[in-house]
Amino acid sequence: MPDPAQTDQFDGQVALVTGGSRGIGKAICLELARRGASIAFNYLKNHDAAKEAEAEISAVGVECLRVRAHVGDEEAVQGLIEQVHEHFGRLDILVNNAASGVMRPAMELSPKHWDWTMDINARGPWLAGREAAKVMGDGGRIINISSPGSRMVLPSYFAVGVSKAALEAVTRYLAIELAPQGIAVNGVSAGYVQTDALDAFPDELGVKELAGRDTPAGRPVTPEDVANVVAMLCGSDAEMIRGQVVTVDGGETAYHR
């Protein structure tokens, strides 16, 4: 929870969080809402989860817009940004959180699996960033949610890891290209976090157990930990942070065990 001085930090601003109906995405929506931002989020399949998220965000006391859109589709992304801009009249923050992928080793992956993963995890954020930049003003923020698998080799994580490495490259390039418009672009790399996304990992890999154990910081990482760093990067104090990827993992990836 933000302190009282932060509750109006983003008052009057509008934030779009892709994949905002569950897990880390919903935590980001709620944190930005608590700090005063109106919220838009998209989802793809789970209508019930999206309705529940909308109700939770609205209960914070801000306006919330729920949109069904596939971020791997160019026309859908264009329509999403247009709908948000038409509804609120502005867009100040874009958080590219939506992610998907086929959890298989490289030798067992098909081009179809590759294309699906890259379209959502790397192409989608580029498209969303491109469209958002057209309507953002000076002081806009784009935050891309990555993963330590972008630089570490994780079991069965080939396509997702490569897509996250691409996303981090997108982050750096957009940070430079959009800087003259006053738009800051950064990334947040979330460590092992207990969310439904871990269901995609085969049980025998033990990833859920890894996410549940204490990090060197003394406890597991939560979605709220990630959301707090996203909010920090969206604030004016982070004005001179550009093209960086901040890892939120309690020190886990720095510790060999």
Q: Keywords for this structure?
A:
257 residues; alpha/beta; Rossmann fold
Task: Kindly describe this structure.
The protein has 257 residues and is an alpha/beta fold. It has 7 helices and 7 strands, in the order βαβαβαβαβαβααβ. The protein has a 7-stranded parallel beta sheet, sandwiched between helices.
Show the helix and strand layout.
Blueprint: E1 14-17, H1 23-34, E2 38-43, H2 47-59, E3 64-68, H3 74-88, E4 93-96, H4 111-135, E5 141-146, H5 158-178, E6 184-190, H6 207-212, H7 223-234, E7 245-248
Parallel strand pairs: 1-2, 1-4, 2-3, 4-5, 5-6, 6-7
Helix pairs in contact: 1-7, 3-4, 4-5
Low-confidence stretches: none
CATH topology: Rossmann fold
Largest sheet: 7 strands, parallel
Order of helices and strands: EHEHEHEHEHEHHE
Average pLDDT over all residues: 92
Number of strands: 7
Overall body shape: globular
Q: Quote the distance from N terminus to C terminus.
A: 32 Å
CATH architecture: 3-Layer(aba) Sandwich
Portion in strands: 5-15%
Give me the Rg, rounded: 17 Å
Helix/strand/pairing category: alpha/beta
Percentage of residues assigned to helices: 40-55%
Q: How is the largest sheet built, in terms of strand order?
A: 3-2-1-4-5-6-7
Write out the CATH superfamily name: NAD(P)-binding Rossmann-like Domain
Q: Number of helix segments?
A: 7
The CATH class is Alpha Beta
Structural domain tally = 1
